[in-house]
Design a protein that fits this description.
flat; HtpX-like protease; four-stranded mixed beta sheet; metalloendopeptidase activity; seven-stranded antiparallel beta sheet; alpha+beta; zinc; PH-domain like; transmembrane; single chain
């Protein structure tokens, strides 16, 4: 079956999806008519209401899909005057592929390239064409590799793939809006789910075939070697991009800091990590795929490329930045266009790393200091108070919270690693050490001479009553003041926490209704309506726009460190009582009618079991 025929079938099926809604509406109208012909009063009214409610949920989703439109184009517009070489290359490629060149080129903050077209009359009439090029590709690809990717995207134009993009968008939206708005027990929804399943199979098959056709256009224009090289390089760049944001930006971003050159930093990391990236390139490409994927597996695409006829092509191994020499300025302009710093403090990379890592250390230390204050019976504590617990022979009480599987004596010895972190923070606060930024390795704590600082040996001395005095003396010799470190956050927060799951519509203390968010550092209790309808959608909307730190600041937060003991009264559905260190109790009861987000109930039981076992030590 040809790609064009598959696309036509996909469009016909989309029309059938809307027609199915009208048929169901007509069916409901006929059923209501029959009900009132044979029944009267409250019984007829109740049945009519149930039918209308069931079909109404389906039709509401269809109506939202009909009215919705694709979002506005994003990214930084690059004009021919700003990047003449890039525009010339794109126009030449378009001519070789046999299609009209795009009207706009936009640089986007993604490891991707794409095309779009504003069409009319279900794609019969073409419109404004846009080519999107990911900034990471410009920074890392060679000219040959970028030519291959651009030829692939322009190949979608020549195959008229973009003509039906708007229809495909509405199809996906119709499925999502309609199926997301019906309950599991809505009979009318069952029919739509089956139809949506079939539509997605056909639509995805069309998409996979279109990708293979565009790949052949890339091979014909740019050559087999360039096409294969770009295909193998894409997952490498994608992994580096994720690593960059996860390891270099995310932690500081959440703590209220931001680097002054977001995209320029990635280019530097990519150059500095050349050896690691080279090892990644040696790995075999992904060969896993399924009928639900919109793209064939990379190995399948490479095999098809290598099987295509070979033609001679001049090799151009220059950096893709040769097509856009102003890429650094473009990166800063793109940053102004798409990055929202909010209220974050924007710093040069070296200062950003130093400020972020110091605050990371402080947050870890605060966790220790809060427990130390509770054990010592003090309002607040710092490193001096932790040393005081060591001198009093009470470190085991504190260490047991961090090493619950060990005896108190064993936990006190194992606490040396935690103590080393506290001493590192003391060195920073005393002005004797600072963080060194690096693109090729993790940031390191170094002294004033730039030599790495290691407090491992002193930390071992600091966890034993008989040697803690020697630890104090050695720290003083290095100018490290124990008193320089105090608690900053006296209450636990969600900074640095991950969302593990969510349980909508639970009962709190037997009466209060709430949505329970499961974080890696504790539970967030969000007030909820008594109705159990749409709990999963409500929680998803909340989590999509709210960070864990914001959740814990806005709603009630029960940190794991604040829980003394856990009693599990029933496993399924969960019924538990938490006893907090302050003496309060919190009852949490899962309802039979509660929504379940994935396997969050299993995650909740696992967390409770660990907390209970910790308290039993």
């Amino acid at each position: 079956m040809s790609t064009a025929l598959r696309a036509v079938i996909s469009v016909v099926m989309l029309a059938g999806f809307y027609l199915l809604g009208l048929v169901q509406l007509a069916l409901v109208g006929w059923l209501i008519y029959e009900i009132w012909q044979h029944l009267h009063g409250a019984g007829a009214a109740k049945l009519s209401y149930l039918l209308l409610a069931a079909v109404g949920a389906v039709l509401a989703g269809l109506w939202r899909a009909i009215r919705a439109k694709p979002g506005d184009p994003h990214g930084l517009i690059v004009t021919p005057d700003q990047a003449p070489q890039l525009w010339q290359q794109v126009r030449e490629l378009a001519a070789e592929v046999g299609t009209r060149a795009p009207d706009e080129i936009r640089i986007v903050p993604e490891v991707n390239a794409a095309v779009s077209e504003d069409t009319k009359l279900l794609g019969l009439i073409g419109g404004v064409r846009r080519l999107y090029i990911g900034m990471p590709l410009l920074q890392t690809f060679t000219v040959d590799q970028l030519r291959s990717v651009l030829a692939h995207e322009l190949g979608h134009y020549s195959g008229s793939h973009t003509r039906l993009a708007g229809v495909a968008y509405r199809g996906r939206l119709a499925m999502h809006e309609t199926l997301g708005g019906v309950g599991n027990w809505n009979v009318f929804g069952w029919v739509f789910k089956a139809y949506g399943w079939l539509y997605q199979l056909v639509s995805n098959a069309v998409a996979r075939r279109q990708e293979l056709e565009a790949d052949l256009a890339s091979v014909r224009v740019a050559g087999v070697d360039a096409a294969v090289s770009s295909m193998r390089e894409l997952p490498v760049v994608d992994a580096a991009w994720d690593f960059y944001f996860g390891r270099y930006i995310a932690y500081g971003w959440e703590l209220g800091y931001a680097p002054d050159d977001v995209f320029g930093g990635f280019a530097k990391l990519y150059q500095a990590r050349a050896d690691e990236l080279a090892r990644m390139r040696e790995e075999e490409p992904d060969d896993e795929t399924s009928r639900w994927d919109t793209h064939p597996a990379i190995s399948e695409r490479i095999a098809a490329m290598r099987a295509a006829p070979r033609t001679a092509h001049a090799v151009d191994g220059r950096s893709a930045t040769a097509l856009m020499p102003t890429v650094e300025a473009a990166g800063m302009a793109l940053q102004r266009e798409v990055v929202d710093f909010g209220t974050r403090t924007v710093l040069p990379w070296e200062d950003f790393t130093a400020a972020s890592m110091t605050l990371v250390l402080q947050n870890r230390a605060d966790r220790v200091f809060r427990s130390a204050a509770r054990i010592a019976g003090l309002p607040v504590a710092g490193l001096a108070e932790v040393f005081g617990l060591v001198e009093a022979g009470r470190l085991g009480e504190l260490a047991a919270e961090f090493f619950p599987q060990s005896t108190r004596k064993e936990a006190a010895a194992e606490f040396a690693d935690v103590m080393a972190t506290l001493l590192g923070l003391a060195a920073v606060r005393s002005g004797q050490a600072g963080w060194q930024h690096s693109w090729s390795k993790p940031a390191v704590l170094a002294d004033r001479n730039g030599e790495p600082v290691d407090f491992t040996e002193i930390a071992k001395l600091a966890v034993a009553p008989e040697t803690v005095g020697e630890a104090r003396a050695r720290l003083a010799e290095q100018g490290v003041q124990v008193e320089a470190v105090q608690v900053v956050q006296t209450r636990a927060t969600g900074q640095g926490a991950d969302v593990l799951g969510a349980m909508p519509n639970v009962k709190m203390d037997g009466t209060e209704h709430a949505d329970l968010i499961l974080l890696s550092k504790g539970f967030v209790v969000v007030p909820a309506p008594k109705s159990t309808d749409d709990g999963e959608k409500r929680v998803a909307a909340l989590l999509s726009g709210t960070s864990p730190a914001e959740l814990t600041a806005r709603y009630r937060f029960i940190a794991f460190e604040d829980i003394s003991t856990v009693r599990i009264d029933r496993e399924v559905p969960v019924n538990t009582t938490l006893l907090l260190h302050g003496g309060q109790t919190v009852g949490i009861q899962e309802r039979w009618t509660s929504d379940k987000v994935g396997k969050s109930d299993d995650v909740f039981r696992e967390i409770l079991t660990k907390l209970r076992d910790r308290g039993d030590q």
